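Saturday, quiet lab. Running sequence design on the structure tokens for the scaffold JK sent over.
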């Protein structure tokens, strides 16, 4: 089974970052995605959907340092619904996207959008959008390989799967 979510949208407010341990950060922020469709009467309608994004550890630290309200970002992760008890003792449910990748697609301010959280290089050396990368385990290189992108010697037929 697969639980994978890919969103492109605008940040609704600056991330709220808390440290539950000295080295364990958790960031929360809303993300708005938009869609347009034509109604039966021929008029176009725009609809926004808000998503609760949660990021942990290095991804949360990256969000804390780089993500700001209004930015267009790419978020990849998994969908999760959890139950909690509110202040009045009522059981509540919340659906969140637990992000494992956040990539800035544009910047609203003039700051450097091409700085990578793991590898802070200047703009002329790094032209790709920033993305969190899990620290590599040099002791076990097999753990670092992505089984879906590993070179298995097969020809590239241009298909996306």
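Result came back. Writing it out in full:
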């Amino acid at each position: 089974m697969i639980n994978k979510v890919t969103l492109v949208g605008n940040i609704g407010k600056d991330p709220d970052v808390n440290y539950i341990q000295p080295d364990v950060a958790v960031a929360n922020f809303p993300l708005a995605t938009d869609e347009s469709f034509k109604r039966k009467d021929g008029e176009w309608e725009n609809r926004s959907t808000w998503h609760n994004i949660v990021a942990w550890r290095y991804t949360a630290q990256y969000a804390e340092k780089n993500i700001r309200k209004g930015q267009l970002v790419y978020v990849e992760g998994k969908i999760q619904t959890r139950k909690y008890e509110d202040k009045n003792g009522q059981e509540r449910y919340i659906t969140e996207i637990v992000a494992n990748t956040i990539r800035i697609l544009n910047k609203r301010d003039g700051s450097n959008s091409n700085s990578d959280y793991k590898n802070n290089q200047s703009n002329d050396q790094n032209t790709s959008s920033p993305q969190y990368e899990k620290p590599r385990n040099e002791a076990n290189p097999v753990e670092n390989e992505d089984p879906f992108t590993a070179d298995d010697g097969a020809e590239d037929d241009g298909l996306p799967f």
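Notes for JK: The first helix runs from residue 57 to 66. The beta strands are 5-11, 16-21, 24-38, 44-56, 72-85, 91-104. Ask whether to fix the surface positions before the next round.
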